[in-house]
Write a structure and sequence with these properties.
Structural class: alpha+beta
Helix content: 25-40%
Shape: globular
Number of domains: 1
Distance between the termini: 24 Å
Order of helices and strands: HEEHEHEEEHE
Largest sheet: 7 strands, mixed
CATH superfamily: GAF domain
Number of helices: 4
CATH class: Alpha Beta
Oligomer: single chain
Number of strands: 7
Amino acid sequence: MSPQDHLQAALRHHDCQTGTLHLLDPSDAQLKLAAQIGLPPHVVQIVTIVPVGKGMAGLAAERLEPVQTCNLQTDITGDIRPGAKAVPVQASIAVPMLVDGALHGILGLAKAEYHEWTEDELAALALTASTVARQLASDDGPASDDGPASDDGPASGGDSDADATV
């Protein structure tokens, strides 16, 4: 399966409308966008390369734990970059894609409505992220030079876009 296919499946499984899948590039230790669904073009440009430690995806990579917000529009934690609020979503989460404790990337998912992630949902998201990382690692083919795959429409009919990993 491609990163885009994995992202689409994760969105469906977790009832989210928008998402990103970043892979860690070992050559420069930055997160590179491998797939996205529902991001407007100006946000795609911003999140194509995410430094570790910056925005939700970068913080999740740095901390090796999920970074989340119940409402992206009103978040005041400092974890959300200002440009993220241009995205019409509320609940957003960036989950590290770990294999044997090593970071392979970040799975970012978002919902159009307010949502508080439960412990069970967090555990399921961590399992999904780990499974995706393992499957992509086993494919071990180099990433395409065509840039990130994209689908400008929402995954399941909700509002599009989530700066889930910014």
